[in-house]
Give the backbone structure.
Amino acid sequence: GAGVSQSPRYKVAKRGQDVALRCDPISGHVSLFWYQQALGQGPEFLTYFQNEAQLDKSGLPSDRFFAERPEGSVSTLKIQRTQQEDSAVYLCASSLNQGSYEQYFGPGTRLTVT
Amino acid sequence: QQPVQSPQAVILREGEDAVINCSSSKALYSVHWYRQKHGEAPVFLMILLKGGEQKGHEKISASFNEKKQQSSLYLTASQLSYSGTYFCGSHSSNTGKLIFGQGTTLQVKP
């Protein structure tokens, strides 16, 4: 079946612009995760959802970051008033359930803020 | 707290073995291992639950020592396709939050 997809794959934004990153998880996967990956670093947890409920958003770096999953499927990560330090690859992953289940990652969105 | 991986980088010849270690300062519920090739998404390798079990498939296996809060990934008779960056991810409870280490870059040369 289809894996996790993300769009756009690449995004260039001018500082101060708002961006929206989309994630389509594997069908039937209850849990959805967002990570931020800087160059040469491991993925850093941002937030995760169980169906439409956002259970943990402790990793969101500031109130400029907002994520939603209104119908428990597709999720959007929104970054308002982008800053240069927001430049990174944003990875989305989904799993059958929370806990000790394998997470399947999408290809990521590379965000560059100029 | 982020788990600590060692070594940071390894260079091998095809057929050689390697061990990658992952240590946490927090009690662990489970450990995940992923491999990421340059410009690609991380790919799941295996999960180890607390209980000290060892898991593996083909020539890649792993162990989890709950008391020491450590996990090790064993790559036997490495192949060129094993090249990439290996990440361990730790769960401190049975919830979704996974904390990744900084990664170990493995390069296998012919």
